[in-house]
Amino acid sequence: xxxxxxxxxxxxxxxxxxxxxxxxxxxxxxxxxxxxxxxxxxxxxxxxxxxxxxxxxxxxxxxxxxxxxxxxxxxxxxxxxxxxxxxxxxxxxxxxxxxxxxxxxxxxxxxxxxxxxxxxxxxxxxxxxxxxxxxxxx
Length: 138
What we know:
By secondary structure, the chain is an alpha+beta fold. About 25% of the residues lie in helices and about 30% in strands.
């Protein structure tokens, strides 16, 4: 079903999945694959479609430049590069290097994020499941 605003413009679509999710909750987990995967304490593989807010939280970045112009980390890269991205294109920002490692039809599919400053007094950002691994090791 289409959703129209007061000016008769289509502003959205409601799918059967939306209705079922509203009524019954998330029965089937969508996107079970992790969008941000820690390789080690100073590097992460990040899906290009990862919301910029998730990247900010995991990497402990306060703000991305002109973040109103994009919603995903792939959008950030395209905004900063100002061109169609290719493999090995990179951007340095806030102590991190964001490097394109996979492209799919001009869309950034995956990034490698590497911390540039390896200061020992800066704690590594932790993913939600990192605490579970520490607890089981103790």
